[in-house]
Amino acid sequence: NLAYLTGAIFSDGYWRVLPDGSSQTVFVQRLTTPQKSEFVESVRERFQEAFDYNLRPVSSDYYYCYKKEVAQKFDQLYENAVLNLLSANENTILNYLAGFYDGDGGFIKRGQILRATFDTRDKTLIKALVIACLRLDLSYRVYTEKIHNKCNFYIYSDIEKILERTKRIVPEICKRRTGTIFFASKQLFDDL
């Protein structure tokens, strides 16, 4: 539960501990589809289970918690994200990825690919996703757009394992067809 919640807050939320001692943990999600409603309720339930405190709706898009201990916990989880994923079991890593992709991710039907977009300046998230994919032996690719400071993180293989745990992303999975493609040697070496 904490792994899924951590992925969701890392991708679709933020937390702060201010010098004056005040703090906030915020989850942001616009309720435009039934899947998003299910995702928000799942995050709120897991938050309640993990911290024995509610994420309270402030508006239709924002859910807040003002407990300092909660923000400090997310701060600690963020700082140790790579180490935590290095020592986590497969189920924990899959739940983290499911939460992350439910937050800021999407499904590309053509090619059966998971995609998440986030800020390139957040090197910790990029490292954590790379470690998670390496631990699960998932094929992935990272594209960065320097102009817009965006990072697109794609997962290509075994996405069914992640999608079993997602609440917002409900795609139609088609079995990938693989086979052998034959090329004439003239096609391959024509310009040599």
Overall description:
The structure is a single chain. It is globular and about 45 Å long. The model is unreliable at 179-183 (pLDDT under 50). It has 192 residues and is α+β, with helices and mostly antiparallel strands. The termini are far apart. It is built from eight helices and eight strands; from the N terminus they run αββαββαααββαββαα.
Structural descriptors:
4-stranded antiparallel beta sheet; 8 helices; alpha+beta; single chain; 21% strand; 192 residues
Distance between the termini: 56 Å
Beta-strand residue fraction: 15-25%
Q: Averaged pLDDT, please?
A: 85
| Largest beta-sheet characterization | 4 strands, antiparallel
Q: What is the number of helical segments per DSSP (H or I, 4+ residues)?
A: 8
Rg result? 19 Å
Order of helices and strands: HEEHEEHHHEEHEEHH
Percent helix, as a range, is: 40-55%
What is this structure, in a nutshell?
The chain is of the alpha+beta class.
SSE map:
Elements: H1 2-12, E1 13-17, E2 23-28, H2 34-51, E3 56-57, E4 62-65, H3 68-79, H4 81-87, H5 90-104, E5 105-108, E6 113-119, H6 123-136, E7 140-145, E8 150-155, H7 159-163, H8 185-189
Antiparallel strand pairs: 1-2, 2-4, 3-4, 5-6, 6-8, 7-8
Helix pairs in contact: 1-2, 1-5, 4-6, 5-6
